[in-house]
Design a protein that fits this description.
With 113 residues, the protein is mainly beta. The chain is built from two helices and six strands, in the order E-E-E-E-E-E-H-H. The longest helix has 8 residues. The relative contact order is 0.16.
Amino acid sequence: MLKRTDFADKRQFGRRHTQVRAWVRIAGRPAVQCIVRNLSDGGALLEFEEDVWVPFSFRLVSDDQSIDKVCEVRHQTGSRIGVQFVEAAEALDHDRKIVDDRDTWTGGAPLRR
């Protein structure tokens, strides 16, 4: 099998290599420290000290407050996670896609309060 060797950067704006210390903030959990290895207008590559689980969507905040973004995971390889920055409203809309199945539980009858 041939390996792909043309790894052209598909980002509209190029990435900048960085070593910014940041924190992954997840509601109800302690913050997790990471290093932002590269950064573009649309996303970043985060590196952790060890393999770590993060939810699909979380907030990334740097120590110097230069980064404060809502992120969605795009790929993960070991202790490195590639994320895309999203608008806070987009992240909320994603979380709101919950099926309303109350009619199934009540047989279609209105709920009593």
